[in-house]
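Chapter summary example.
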Amino acid sequence: MSTIAVFGASGLTASECVYQAIQNGDSVVGLTRNPNKLQIPKGSGGSKAGQPFQHPNLTVLAGDVTKQA
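The structure predicted for these 69 residues follows.
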């Protein structure tokens, strides 16, 4: 098991990466401007696609990589 950092975690590609890493048993720390936008992706989320993405191995942080504060 690895810990993976994903920037822009609520984006289309990034949310897919987060989802697949979690399914692989990895821990993920995701940074996104709006944590409420992180959803299970349509690509591999199946019938759960579009639902809020919560998992014990997922830590979501609110922030913006362009703003130090």
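To summarize the output: The mean pLDDT is 94.
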